[in-house]
């Protein structure tokens, strides 16, 4: 699978290089499409890992923590890809706002974990 991803990247790179000389405005779209293809293929690679982690979390009782970590990783990956595409198209301000929104989203989904840890800390201090 990694060879296919590398092949997609190289073909996209060649297309972007050729289009920069012919029509520069189209090269950003080709770069974005190539990036989306690579990310989509990468998610296919990650599915077995995520399902295995899900099985482990159900068996251990740490499902809240593992679920939050997986969501945070997903948000980080999607937002990083989106901000990279924005930067490739020359929109640094939008890329920065995407990254800010991702950080805020990660903080939001982390609140139940923080609440759980605070409750655990109070439990330990009472004993």
Main sheet overview: none
State the helix count: 4
Strand percentage lies at under 5%
Give the low-pLDDT segments. none
Label the structural class: mainly alpha
Mean pLDDT: 86
Radius of gyration in whole Å, from Cα?
20 Å
> What is the strand tally?
0
- Taken from the alpha-carbon principal axes, the silhouette is elongated
Distance between the termini: 53 Å
Write the H/E string, N to C: HHHH
Indicate the multimeric state.
single chain
Q: In percent, how helical is the residue content?
A: over 70%
| Count of domain modules | 2
Description:
The chain is an all-alpha fold. Helix content is 94%, strand content 0%. It is elongated, with a radius of gyration of 20 Å. 7% of the residues are buried. The model has no long low-confidence stretch (mean pLDDT 86).
């Amino acid at each position: 699978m990694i060879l296919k991803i590398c092949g997609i990247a190289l073909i996209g790179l060649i297309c972007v290089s050729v289009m920069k000389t012919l029509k520069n405005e189209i090269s950003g779209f080709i770069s974005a499409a190539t990036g989306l293809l690579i990310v989509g293929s990468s998610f296919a690679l990650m599915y077995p890992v995520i399902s295995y982690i899900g099985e482990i979390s159900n068996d251990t009782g740490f499902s809240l923590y593992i679920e939050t970590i997986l969501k945070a990783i997903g948000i980080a990956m999607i937002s990083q890809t989106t901000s990279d595409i924005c930067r490739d198209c020359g929109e640094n301000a939008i890329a920065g706002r995407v990254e800010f929104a991702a950080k805020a989203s990660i903080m939001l989904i982390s609140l139940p974990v923080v609440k759980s840890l605070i409750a655990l800390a109070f439990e330990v201090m009472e004993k």
